[in-house]
């Protein structure tokens, strides 16, 4: 073969790759343009400070009040939590460079698992890189083709994705509808095991699952109950144990998944607590656990101190109620529609995606950091600004946030 022919033979597949790449790029750009046109584009603001009730935002002047973090208890920058992370970094290093079963388990991992099991009053605990991973790793291990899983239709995306990985019969009941759940449980009676799966608190609306009724039906029809407590752990219930404590069913819920990335310091990580045989089986077969690096020591150190603070006192958790109701009552009196019940998640319902985004941008100019939520995070026509109250917010912070909502709401005809 001549040199020219050899060169042409090499260039032909390269040109094909370039054409394919250009075509793929065009498809992606078209999809991105459609997101922008729909008003659902999600820009990422840049924070130039530590997380807290007051933050600095790139492009904004002065201190900004943050009303959209999952930092429910204000522990993300709590000095004792931060110091615990520094201490763990110095003593244990930046990371393990390993999964848990090879050489990635340190005594601080086992200590945190023990404290989380104690906190939730369950037999044992297993740590994951995130609660998304905990949800992805549970159902495939627990349930087989002869089993049935009954899931609330508005469960978090991580639950939905986790259930898709298992081979159980998948059944979906209407949101918090006990009658429909009972209907599904009756249909699932031929299954070996039945698992009812629900968020404890549904994060987009701040509504609390009817766990007492769910547990009644589960016991009547021989099912187990699983709850995802990411938006409840640390601050719901008299001692902050979560939705199951709030509703008096701690001994009736078999499996709890939750996160270290919200109220418990806000860094990263998730976990499952439940019966020891289940936790032992997850350590052997749960793919996100077996194939993901161990949680970094500084993250574990921070989370451990956060849990210790909550085990020692319920004062922080109890401070949430009055602050939450202050915001909800003042906003309702001003004419806004606030979804959910007495939960720190306070969705200000607006309906239109463009309006939610525009109002959030204008709120930032008034010194209030909030974000508009729209499709696909929430259903079409249900756009909102999701406000989240923190124990670190003062009454003055809350009043200033309400005043900013009233000002922007009047400008756009949302309130009079």
TrEMBL record:
InterPro entries: 2am3keto_CoA_ligase, Aminotrans_II_pyridoxalP_BS, Aminotransferase_I/II_large, AON_synthase_class-II, PyrdxlP-dep_Trfase, PyrdxlP-dep_Trfase_major, PyrdxlP-dep_Trfase_small. One of its GO terms (cellular component) is mitochondrion. It holds the Pfam family Aminotran_1_2. The gene is gcat. Its cofactor is pyridoxal 5'-phosphate. This is 2-amino-3-ketobutyrate coenzyme A ligase, mitochondrial. It catalyses: glycine + acetyl-CoA = (2S)-2-amino-3-oxobutanoate + CoA. The keyword Cell division does not apply. One of its GO terms (molecular function) is pyridoxal phosphate binding. It comes from Salarias fasciatus (Jewelled blenny). Its EC number is 2.3.1.29. PANTHER family: 2-AMINO-3-KETOBUTYRATE COENZYME A LIGASE, MITOCHONDRIAL, CLASS II AMINOTRANSFERASE/8-AMINO-7-OXONONANOATE SYNTHASE.
């Amino acid at each position: 073969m001549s040199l020219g022919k050899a060169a042409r033979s090499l260039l032909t597949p390269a040109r094909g790759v370039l054409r394919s790449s250009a075509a793929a790029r065009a498809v992606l750009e078209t999809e991105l343009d459609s997101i922008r046109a729909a008003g659902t584009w999600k820009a990422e603001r840049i924070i130039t400070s530590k997380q807290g009730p007051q933050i600095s935002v790139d492009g904004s002047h002065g201190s900004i009040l943050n009303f959209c973090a999952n930092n429910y208890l204000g522990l993300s920058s709590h000095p004792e939590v931060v110091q615990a992370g520094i201490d763990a970094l110095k003593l244990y290093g930046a990371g393990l460079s390993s999964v848990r079963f090879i050489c990635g388990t340190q005594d601080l991992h086992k200590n945190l698992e023990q404290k989380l099991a104690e906190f939730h009053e369950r037999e044992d605990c297993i740590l994951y890189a995130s609660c998304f991973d905990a949800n992805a790793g549970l159902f495939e291990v627990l349930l087989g083709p002869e089993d049935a899983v009954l899931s609330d239709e508005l469960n978090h995306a991580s639950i939905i994705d986790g259930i898709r990985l298992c081979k159980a019969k998948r059944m979906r009941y209407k949101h918090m509808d006990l009658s429909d759940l009972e209907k599904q449980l009756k249909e699932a009676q031929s299954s070996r095991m039945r698992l009812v799966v629900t968020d404890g608190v549904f994060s987009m609306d701040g509504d609390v699952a009817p766990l007492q009724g769910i547990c009644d039906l589960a016991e009547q029809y021989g099912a187990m109950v699983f709850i995802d407590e990411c938006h409840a752990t640390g601050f719901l219930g008299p001692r902050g144990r979560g939705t199951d404590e709030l509703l008096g069913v701690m001994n009736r819920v078999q499996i709890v998944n939750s996160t270290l990335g919200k109220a418990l310091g806000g860094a990263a990580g998730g976990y499952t607590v439940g019966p020891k045989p289940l936790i032992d089986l997850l350590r052997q077969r749960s793919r996100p656990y077996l194939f993901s690096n161990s949680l970094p020591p500084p993250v574990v150190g921070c989370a451990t101190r956060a849990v210790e603070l909550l085990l020692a006192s319920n004062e922080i958790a109890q401070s949430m109620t009055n602050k939450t109701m202050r915001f909800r009552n003042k906003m309702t009196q001003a004419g806004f529609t606030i979804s959910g019940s007495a939960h720190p998640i306070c969705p200000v319902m607006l309906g239109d995606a463009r309006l939610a985004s525009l109002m959030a941008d204008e709120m930032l100019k008034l010194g209030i950091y909030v974000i508009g939520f729209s499709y696909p995070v929430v259903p079409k026509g249900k756009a909102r600004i999701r406000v989240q109250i923190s124990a670190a917010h003062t009454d003055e912070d809350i009043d200033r946030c309400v005043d900013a909502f009233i000002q922007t709401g009047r400008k756009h005809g949302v309130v009079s």
